């Protein structure tokens, strides 16, 4: 860990190995060995390095994160999602109970006549697959997403469907439809954005007067608590306090909102939405190895969703760097990674597991203040 931090400290200050070697009174070959991990400096040099770079010795040693510039994974950008098609497919396996969606459409939202639906951040159209067969005849679906890869896959998947679908590669922040749709919906979309309130304004602008807005969003605290794996202690695998550190950092940096599912009713209220209601999605996946076919489907999907199909030291190192960049110490980051490794090992072994998403379903109707 010292090699990584020494290199980063030197590059941030803009000095060469030779310059640092001259300051410390050693050869540049010695600096090179320290940076590659081939050798470790004596304590006196660690103290001198910390003093020179104005950091703590723990930061030099990688025990605490260096206060470097925060970097975003840019999850609201097309480039990120163009590489996530496999993730979308695996994370949507058995995501909804169809009977509950039917209950929402017919009994809760009372969509009893043909409606034009607009899906923000549609991905490859998963919601169309779930909702449209249950909608009144003559209903239409339009999906917009910033990722061309997602849009093209959506077009391909729905080309032969009996209901009318349209897919457009558009940035939701810039979408300009005004009062055109009866229903505007999103799923697992707002949590990836730097400015969800701005996106909600655009969603409301696309609604007809009195139209219905539906936001199906993850709350990370609920999602985190919704995993149980046979053979692991439930309390030990949650690590909520540790994970809350990086969730909170991402929120404070206007990167991603870990609690958007809980904040949505308040955001919609502030935007003039009326008759707001909140429900929880009822789907809970139980992967039982005694039911081999279904278990294999859920096991494969979960491992792909997490990127756990194979052991990958490089991915673990990236995860460690990301966690430390978001405020965790080296020890805390390693603890979180160890927990994830335990989960991966048990599921790859074929242990039974239970998983729910923590989806919070918030909906309401466009009021006069929005028009």
Quick tags:
371 residues, 434 Repressor (Amino-terminal Domain), Rossmann fold, 3 domains, 10 strands
How would you explain this protein's 3D organization?
This protein is of the alpha/beta class and 371 residues long. It has three domains: 2-60, lambda repressor-like DNA-binding domains (434 Repressor (Amino-terminal Domain), Orthogonal Bundle), CATH 1.10.260; 78-219 and 259-284 and 358-370, 3-Layer(aba) Sandwich (Rossmann fold); 222-254 and 285-355, DNA polymerase, domain 1 (Orthogonal Bundle), CATH 1.10.150. It is built from 18 helices and ten strands. It has a seven-stranded mixed beta sheet with strand order 3-2-1-4-5-10-7, sandwiched between helices. The radius of gyration is 24 Å and the shape is elongated.
Task: Indicate the low-confidence ranges by residue numbers.
Answer: none
- By CATH, the architecture of the largest domain is named 3-Layer(aba) Sandwich
CATH T-level topology of the largest domain: Rossmann fold
Describe the main β-sheet briefly.
7 strands, mixed
Compact summary:
This protein is an alpha/beta fold. Helices cover 47% and strands 16% of the residues.
How do the helices and strands line up, and which of them pair or pack?
Blueprint: H1 2-13, H2 17-24, H3 28-36, H4 43-53, H5 57-60, H6 78-82, H7 85-91, H8 98-108, E1 116-120, H9 126-131, E2 140-145, H10 148-157, E3 164-169, E4 181-187, H11 196-205, E5 207-218, H12 220-225, E6 227-229, H13 234-238, H14 240-252, H15 260-270, E7 274-280, E8 285-287, H16 292-306, H17 313-325, H18 330-349, E9 353-355, E10 359-365
Parallel strand pairs: 1-2, 1-4, 2-3, 4-5
Antiparallel strand pairs: 5-10, 6-9, 7-10, 8-9
Helix pairs in contact: 1-3, 2-3, 7-16, 17-18
């Amino acid at each position: 860990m010292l090699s990584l931090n020494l290199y980063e400290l030197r590059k941030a200050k803009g000095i060469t190995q030779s310059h640092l070697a001259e300051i410390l009174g050693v050869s540049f070959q010695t600096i090179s060995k320290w940076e590659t991990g081939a050798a470790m400096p004596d304590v006196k040099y660690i103290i001198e390095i910390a003093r020179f770079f104005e950091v703590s010795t723990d930061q030099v040693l990688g025990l605490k994160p260096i206060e470097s510039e925060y970097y975003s994974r840019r999850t609201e950008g097309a480039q990120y999602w163009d590489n996530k098609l496999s993730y979308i497919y695996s994370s949507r396996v058995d995501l909804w109970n169809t009977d509950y969606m039917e209950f929402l459409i017919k009994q809760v939202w009372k969509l009893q006549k043909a409606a034009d639906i607009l899906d923000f951040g549609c991905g490859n159209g998963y919601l169309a697959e779930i909702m449209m067969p249950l909608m009144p005849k003559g209903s239409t679906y339009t999906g917009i997403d910033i990722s061309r890869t997602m849009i093209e896959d959506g077009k391909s998947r729905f080309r032969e469907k009996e209901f009318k679908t349209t897919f457009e590669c558009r940035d939701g922040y810039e979408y300009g439809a005004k009062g055109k749709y009866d229903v505007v919906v999103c799923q697992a979309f707002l949590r990836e954005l730097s400015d969800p309130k701005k996106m909600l304004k655009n969603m409301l602008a696309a609604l007809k007067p009195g139209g219905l807005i539906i936001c199906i969003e993850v709350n990370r605290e609920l999602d985190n608590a919704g995993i149980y794996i046979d053979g692991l202690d439930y309390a030990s695998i949650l690590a909520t306090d540790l994970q809350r550190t990086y969730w909170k950092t991402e929120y404070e940096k206007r990167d991603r909102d870990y609690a958007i599912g809980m904040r949505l009713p308040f955001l919609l209220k502030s935007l003039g939405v009326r008759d707001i209601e909140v429900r929880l999605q009822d789907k809970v996946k139980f992967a039982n190895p005694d039911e081999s076919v279904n278990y294999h489907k859920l096991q494969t999907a979960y491992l792909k969703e997490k990127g756990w199909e194979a052991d990958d030291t490089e991915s673990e190192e990236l995860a460690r760097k990301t966690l430390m960049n978001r405020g965790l110490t080296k020890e805390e980051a390693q603890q979180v990674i160890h927990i994830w490794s335990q989960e991966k090992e048990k599921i790859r072994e074929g242990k039974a597991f239970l998983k729910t998403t923590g989806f919070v379903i918030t909906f309401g109707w466009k009021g006069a203040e929005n028009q």
